[in-house]
Amino acid sequence: MQQEFDLIVIGGGPVGENVADRAVQGGLSTVIVEHELVGGECSYWACMPSKALLRAGAAISAARRVPGAAEAVTGHLDVQALFAHRDDVVKHWDDSGQLEWLDGAGIQLVRGHGRLDGERRVVVDTPDGGSVELRARVAVVVATGSDPLIPRIEGLAEARPWASREATSAEQAPRRLAVIGGGVVGVEMAAAYASFGTEVTVIARSGLLREFEPFAGELVGEGLAEQGARVITGASPVRVERVGAADDADASGGEVRIELSTGETIVADEVLVATGRTPRTHGLGLETIGLEPGDWLEADDTLRVPGHDWLYAVGDVNHRALLTHQGKYQARAAGDAIAARARGDEASDAPWGAHVATADHHAVPQVVFADPEVAAVGLTAAGVEEAGLRTRVLDYELGWVAGASLLADGYRGTARMIVDEDRGVVVGATFVGQDVAELVQAATIAIVGEVPIDRLWHAVPAYPTMSEVWLRLLEAYGRPAA
After folding, report:
1. Residue 19 contacts residue 141 (beta carbons within 8 Å)
2. Which residues bind FAD (predicted)?
């Protein structure tokens, strides 16, 4: 028996939910196919639980930097209470609240693993061992996200390593944790577990946060060291072994020994692999429409897959910007574009149009919730050089801003603004320091809006706040001509 809908969305995370919501608002009958929890990776195993685990340590560190408050911090972080709070944040891995939202939004749900079976056709293998056939009158959206990439290191897979899910859903903190990888996930989980009192070792061959400005990795590395973590650079794991576990089925137990290229051996109770992501495109039936299983799916700025006018790839799976907020941005554009095309209208596909994800190219905001935080948007100094732009790079020490001195005694941090000299607009900004996350939205607006530097002088920052750094950066750039 075949069921027909205007739109079929494979993947019920925040990206799939947003595509479906916009399509329903555009008048399309829509179904989501999801084999795990509706709400997806971000809600249950990534963004939300990781930030819940990080917050308590950040709050204690912030209090210890304020005279008067520091003296009130007399105990240690209660890890089990924090894990209980994490459980509340993820609704104890129960998606019943999301199901109520789907019902209220007019979106149908089919539980099971969905796979393409030719053009506009999806077969769902259901949990009871049966199957459901779905047909899309208009479009199919693939919003299946990504999985952790486990590198081919001798013995690593057999050592039963943690990936991001295991790190964010752990029921207790190990005494020793080794982290392989110096990207966002590795840095955030290293910071979280170090705040729990875990002995943390980060193995980051090329350094920390390499996609950001160099000072970001340097300051975050200093912060990890202050938390008691060790960061090893210039070395790679060559062999991993778990020894002393009760049996091969034991997901933990014993200890993990990691042999490095330098000859040193790191011993830990658990090893977290945070070396990148791989697309969830295996088992999706891509071969039935001439695409390669296991590959990232290419998508244009309206998120449509070239050569398939009925197929869209949204979120991580298209490898444009592997961030929840950016995936939801793509989802809004895609859902509106699908609905417009279904009505026979043309999609607004010009840059910054209603149906495109233009910001993916050069205005992607991101926050790393380490201690210190990193908040960045747009191009880095290396990026503008690669793009061949004529720019000026302005740096300012955040500790010199009045608002920072109130936040923390001896505040340390750096702000960078990059200006395109030919257009007179900001094209990149990076802030590193305590509580800088909220600064990134102003920078994002300046970049997306292409606000002229001369006009930014009239955006007066309130005193004494961290936002005063904008005035200091503009002063470093120079006053506008009379």
Report:
1. yes
2. 51, 114, 144-146, 316
Residue 238 annotated as binding site: no
- The span from the CA of 285 to the CA of 118, in Å, is 8
Q: What one-letter code names the amino acid at 203?
A: I
Which CATH number is 157-275 given?
Answer: 3.50.50.60
146 is in an annotated binding site: yes
Strands (E), 250-390: 255-260, 265-268, 270-273, 277-279, 311-313, 366-368, 373-378
The answer to whether 197 is annotated as binding is no
Same CATH topology for 2-44+90-147+278-359 and 157-275?
yes
The token pair at 34 is 């999801």
Longest dimension (CA), the chain: 77
**Summary count for the chain: helices (H), strands (E):** 15, 21
* Angle subtended by helix axes 96-105 and 14-25, to nearest 10: 20
The CATH number for 372-477, chosen from 3.20.20.10, 3.40.50.12780, 3.30.390.30, 3.40.50.720, is 3.30.390.30
Q: Which segments of 284-343 are extended strands (E)? A: 311-313
What pLDDT digit, counting tens, does each position of 344-377 carry? 999 998 999 999 999 999 999 999 999 999 999 9
Q: Does 185 carry a binding-site annotation? A: yes
CA–CA dist 337, 18 (Å, integer): 13
Cα 478 from Cα 164, distance rounded (Å):
45
Q: State pTM to two decimals.
A: 0.95
96 has binding-site annotation:
no
Task: Classify residue 241 by its DSSP letter.
Answer: E
- 213-229 tens-digit pLDDT: 999 999 999 999 999 99
pLDDT single digits (tens) 136-186: 999 999 999 999 999 999 999 999 999 999 999 999 999 999 999 999 999
Question: Can you give the residue ranges of every domain in the chain?
Answer: 2-44+90-147+278-359, 157-275, 372-477
The domain made up of 2-44+90-147+278-359 is a member of CATH 3.50.50.60: yes
The Cα-based distances of 435 to 20, 242, 392 in angstroms read 34, 39, 26
The answer to whether 221 is a known ligand-binding residue is no
- 186 marked as part of a ligand binding site: yes
Tell me: is residue 122 an annotated ligand-binding position. Answer: no
Residue listed under structure tokens 């330098």: 262
What sign for the dihedral angle of Cα 430, 432, 435, 437? positive
317 is in an annotated binding site: no
Tell whether 145 is in a known binding site: yes
